[in-house]
Write a structure and sequence with these properties.
281 residues; alpha+beta; twelve-stranded mixed sheet; two-stranded antiparallel ribbon; 5 helices; 14 strands
């Protein structure tokens, strides 16, 4: 527990040198996130701790574990700490304290810039960025009601990016936002899951005071490599599946041609056993 607290404090200090503060936060929601890493055999469920930090006009959504990982590895002093923790994890075979990425490398920023959603990701060892128009999700209201964290919630359903989503939104918190790219309801989404329960977000805590500001993170201080959503998602899937020559992957090819990175490790080909969060590409 002491090690965890140290990492929390340390990572907040490290990121200060490269971030852009957008606006004060008014509310922050912590979600327990689960995803099926293998949706074919369903052998294991990955878990993560996600943060939705909301301001008056913009919000950000990211994995707490990915944030700590990026904060450590992109700072010289933090890198030494991360390397020591990693070596200790291998020595003791206890990987619980090893700094690692959670379920996703993504950082999402809604309404930044205005009317758009920006995603950043360092999965290709270069900080990539793409933006898209704020999604318009056609929700259908249901009569079902329940209580989450003491807040009365109503159910809504929608088809979005190839998945059928069910969302429970708080009728007493008039914030049209939610986990990941979900939103557009007359209340804050406190739980959301797809029909196969491959992906689920459940609010476990709501904080309304002592909040960090809504912040755009740039961990290494270098310019982002700009791309578009479909190119990124196609390249991400090809990279994870390890099929073909790594330099035939369109985003990796563009990064190498730009000179931002010269070499990539060839991944061993294997069957991709999970359906991605977005299927519309």
């Amino acid at each position: 527990m002491k090690t965890t607290v140290f990492l929390l404090l340390f990572s907040t200090q490290v990121v200060a040198q490269h971030h852009t503060r957008l606006e004060p936060a008014t509310i922050e929601v912590h979600y327990h996130h689960t995803m099926q890493r293998d949706t074919v055999r369903r052998l294991a469920t990955e878990t993560d701790s996600m943060i939705l930090r909301i301001g008056a006009s913009a919000s950000q959504f990211f994995s707490r574990h990915t944030f700590y990982y990026d904060s450590l590895w992109n700072d010289p002093d933090g890198r030494a700490t991360a390397e020591a923790l990693t070596l200790e994890a291998f020595r003791t075979r206890d990987h619980s304290k090893e700094p690692r990425v959670g379920t996703t490398y993504d950082y999402l920023y809604k309404n930044y810039p205005a009317g758009r959603v920006t995603t950043t990701n360092e999965q290709f060892y270069v900080a990539c960025r793409y933006d898209e128009a704020t999604p318009s999700i056609s929700w259908g209201m249901a009569d079902s009601v329940r209580t989450i964290l003491g807040h009365p919630c109503r159910m809504a359903t929608a088809d979005f990016r190839g998945r059928r989503w069910t969302a429970w939104f708080a009728t007493d918190i008039p914030v049209s936002d939610g986990p990941w790219k979900l939103g557009g309801l007359p209340g804050l989404i406190l739980e959301a899951y797809d029909r196969g329960d491959d992906y689920r977000y459940t609010a476990v805590r709501i904080v309304e005071s002592g909040l960090d500001p809504v912040t755009f993170y740039c961990f290494d201080g270098k310019p982002f490599f700009d791309t578009d959503r479909q190119t990124f998602l196609r390249s991400q899937r090809a990279f994870l599946s390890g099929q073909g020559n790594v330099y035939d992957i369109e985003l990796i090819r563009a990064i190498v041609q730009s000179g931002r990175r010269k070499t990539y490790m060839q991944r061993e080909a294997h069957r991709l056993l999970f359906d991605p969060l977005e299927r519309d590409y």
